[in-house]
TrEMBL record:
Keywords: ATP-binding, Cytoplasm, Nucleotide-binding, Nucleotidyltransferase, Transferase, tRNA processing. Required for the formation of a threonylcarbamoyl group on adenosine at position 37 (t(6)A37) in tRNAs that read codons beginning with adenine. Belongs to the SUA5 family. This is Threonylcarbamoyl-AMP synthase. It is found in: Cytoplasm. Its EC number is 2.7.7.87. It is an enzyme of class 2 (transferase). It comes from the Bacteria. InterPro entries: DHBP_synth_RibB-like_a/b_dom, Sua5-like_dom, Sua5/YwlC_C, Sua5_C, T(6)A37_SUA5, TC-AMP_synthase_SUA5. It catalyses: L-threonine + hydrogencarbonate + ATP = L-threonylcarbamoyladenylate + diphosphate + H2O. NCBIfam families: L-threonylcarbamoyladenylate synthase.
Length: 317
C-alpha cells in the first residue's frame, strides 16, 4: 500500500512499521527508541531476535546520541562516505535498546543518501531501525513492487523509485583506531583502507555478530546454482534444459530465459536483485548463475551470489 511522506511520519511516530526507500535497498523502518515498534520489524520479517538492526540517522551529528564513542577513525569515514552506503558499528550508549542491538554491546549506524529517506529522518525527528524490507533469508527489495510482493500488499510503502546502489551497505566495525569489514558492499575495502589510513585488523579477539552470517541469504524461491565459469554453466544448461540464467559480460549464451548484466560492478549491483526477482518469477526449475570475476571490485556482488546459492553440505552441519 503506497503512502505519502506525511502518512509515513504519522505511522512511524505512532510505533508502526513503514517500508522506506534508501539508495541501497528498501528498508522496513520503525522508531528505534520504541521497543514495541522494533518488535514489529522482527515479527514482520520473521527474523530471529539475535540478528541486530541498523539505526538510520539524519546526520553525523546524531552519532553521539547512539554511540558511546566516536573515535577519529570513525569521523574520517563518516566525512568521506556519509550520506551513503556505509554502516559503522560502534560501542553503544547504555540507553540504546538491547532489542535493536540484539544484546550486542555495539550499535550499527548509517546516514542513507536517498533524499526521501533523509527528509523522513529529518522531519520525523526519529532514529529509524531498518533492516532490508524482505522476509528473513529471501531476496532484498530494490523497488516498492518488490516490497509488496515479499511482505504483502497491506504493508505501507513510501515509494522512492528503484534503488541506485542496489545491494546492502558496507558494514565496518570500529574499535578505537582499528577496523574490521563485517559485510562487503559497493564502498570497497580499498576505499575504506585509503580513508582509514590503515588496512583492516584481521586479528580481532571479539568477533561481533557477523552480518548476514547466515550462509543462506538474499535468496530467490527458485533453486539457484553458481558456476565458476561460463562453459560449465553452458554444459549444465545443455544437459538439463528448462533453467533460467543470470550472466555477467557478453551475452553469447543464447539461452532461453536469460538476463545478462554488464561487466561493470556498479551497474551489475544496481540491477542484481531486480534481475533475480525477474528470474524467480519466470518459474524455471533452476536459476543458473555465472560467478563474476574473483577481483576486489566484484567482492560485494560475489558475496550476495554465494549466499543466494548456498547449499548445506549435509543436514547436520
Ligand atoms: O544497506 C543497508 O544496510 C540496508 C538498508 C535498509 O539500510 N539495511 C540492511 O539491514 O541491510 P539488514 O538488517 O538486512 O542487515 C544489517 C546487518 C545484519 O546482518 C546485522 O547482523 C548487522 O547488520 N548488524 C546490525 N547491528 C550490528 C552490530 N551491533 N554488530 C554487528 N553487526 C550488526
Ligand atoms: Mg537483509
Amino acid at each position: 500500500m503506497r503512502i505519502s511522506p506525511a502518512k509515513a511520519i504519522d505511522l512511524l511516530q505512532r510505533g508502526e512499521v513503514v517500508a522506506i526507500p534508501t539508495e541501497t535497498v528498501y528498508g522496513l523502518a520503525a522508531d528505534a527508541s520504541n521497543e514495541l515498534a522494533i518488535a514489529k520489524i522482527y515479527a514482520t520479517k520473521q527474523r530471529p531476535a539475535n540478528n541486530p538492526l541498523i539505526v538510520h540517522i539524519a546526520s553525523a551529528t546524531q552519532v553521539v546520541d547512539w554511540a558511546s564513542e566516536f573515535p577519529p577513525l570513525a569521523h574520517r569515514l563518516v566525512q568521506a562516505f556519509w550520506p551513503g552506503p556505509l554502516t559503522l558499528v560502534l560501542p553503544a550508549r547504555a540507553e540504546v535498546s538491547t532489542i535493536v542491538r540484539a544484546g550486542e554491546p555495539t550499535v550499527a549506524l548509517r546516514v542513507p543518501a536517498h533524499p526521501i529517506a533523509l527528509a523522513l529522518l529529518r522531519d520525523s525527528g526519529l532514529g529509524l531501525a531498518a533492516p532490508s524490507a524482505n522476509k528473513y533469508t529471501q531476496l532484498s527489495p530494490t523497488t516498492a513492487d518488490h516490497v509488496e510482493a515479499g511482505l504483502g500488499a497491506e504493508i505501507p510503502v513510501l515509494d522512492g523509485g528503484a534503488c541506485q546502489i542496489g545491494i546492502e551497505s558496507t558494514i565496518v566495525s570500529i574499535t578505537g583506531d582499528t577496523w574490521q569489514l563485517l559485510r562487503p558492499g559497493m564502498i570497497d575495502e580499498a576505499a575504506i583502507t585509503l580513508i582509514a589510513g590503515r588496512p583492516a585488523n584481521q586479528s580481532v579477539t571479539h568477533t561481533p555478530k557477523a552480518p548476514g552470517q547466515h550462509l543462506l541469504h538474499y535468496s530467490p524461491h527458485t533453486p539457484c546454482l553458481l558456476f565458476t565459469s561460463r562453459p560449465a554453466l553452458m554444459d549444465y544448461a545443455a544437459n538439463k534444459p528448462g533453467g533460467a540464467a543470470l550472466l555477467f559480460g557478453d551475452d553469447i549464451a543464447n539461452l532461453k530465459t536469460t538476463i545478462t548484466l554488464p561487466a561493470e560492478p556498479a551497474v551489475a549491483a544496481e540491477q542484481l536483485y531486480a534481475s533475480l526477482h525477474t528470474l524467480d518469477a519466470a518459474q524455471a526449475s533452476v536459476i543458473l548463475i555465472e560467478s563474476p570475476p574473483d577481483t576486489p571490485a566484484w567482492a560485494a556482488v560475489r558475496d550476495r551470489l554465494q549466499r543466494a546459492t548456498y547449499q548445506p553440505v549435509s543436514q547436520n552441519d
